Amino acid sequence: MADAVLFEFLHTEMVAELWAPDADPGSGGKKKSWSVLEGLGFRVGQALGERLPRETLAVREELDALKFLCKDLWAAMFQKHMDGLRTNHQGTYVLQDNNFPLLLTMGSGSQYIEEAPKFLAFTCGLLCGALHTLGFRSLVTASVTALPACKFQVVMQKS
Amino acid sequence: MADAVLFEFLHTEMVAELWAPDADPGSGGKKKSWSVLEGLGFRVGQALGERLPRETLAVREELDALKFLCKDLWAAMFQKHMDGLRTNHQGTYVLQDNNFPLLLTMGSGSQYIEEAPKFLAFTCGLLCGALHTLGFRSLVTASVTALPACKFQVVMQKS
């Protein structure tokens, strides 16, 4: 019984709990669910960031910080590396995971693609929170074209 | 960076989110928070239970099931064993953890003892959910006398 499944099960149940169907469409329920999950992820990302080895905290190059997310952070969370990292060299980065573990339970293809965003909110916040601890302000969004692959887009904010 | 901290950080933030101060004391807010966290734990415990090796699922003696929680389940979650297991031989079991990881951030002693229950609800549900998968109905409660030690009381329900 692997420890990693504990995190994945807890994440799944937390999404189910916080993404409850909203009785009043006018109250911005889904938007609120997204930001609650994103906020949770941000704080967990910050906390994970504070556990980093000192050498990593000395990272000051954007690209090194992104490589850290793709390798060390992904390994700690999902026991693997991100599958791809691209940049336009102007502060925008696209991180690709071809088998994102938090989407694996949804099966493959596009049938349930509308349900995917709720499983990405926590991780968007987490990436943003980890970058924050490394000293970078960012906006992180996610997109899915075919489950269980997804892309995270990180846009660095100039301070 | 250990994977285990990921679960602990997520648990901490989930408690903070779901145990929000309640504006209306009449609405049973804290009671609802407890049952939401307990329900989340129950479902995670069931899911973990379904990942057990086949030999374990063949457990049919109460005491074997409890030993499984104290050793295998605790090791998978917290990388250690429970510190003590007692029974009155009439279906009541007391599981003692002298350094319960989900209470460690609260410091020692009795200063914050009133805050402790919210950090135990998820685990009470989880123990109950894992027992459910093993084929046992139970009621699980927790108590704290001095942080970070705690006791889980399991009362087996006759079917």
From TrEMBL, chains A, B:
GO cellular component, one term: TRAPP complex
Leader peptide range in chain numbering: none
SUPFAM superfamilies: Ligand-binding domain in the NO signalling and Golgi transport
Pfam family, one: TRAPP
Coiled coil residues, start to end: none
Subcellular location: Endoplasmic reticulum; Golgi apparatus, cis-Golgi network
InterPro entries xrefs: NO_sig/Golgi_transp_ligand-bd (IPR024096), TRAPP_component (IPR007194), TRAPPC6/Trs33 (IPR037992)
Gene Ontology biological-process annotations: endoplasmic reticulum to Golgi vesicle-mediated transport
Subunit structure: Part of the multisubunit transport protein particle (TRAPP) complex. Heterodimer with TRAPPC3. The heterodimer TRAPPC3-TRAPPC6A interacts with TRAPPC2L. Interacts with TRAPPC2L.
Family membership noted in the UniProt record: Belongs to the TRAPP small subunits family. BET3 subfamily.
Name of the protein described by the UniProt record: Trafficking protein particle complex subunit 6A
Species assigned in the record: Mesocricetus auratus
Phylogenetic classification of the source organism: Eukaryota, Metazoa, Chordata, Craniata, Vertebrata
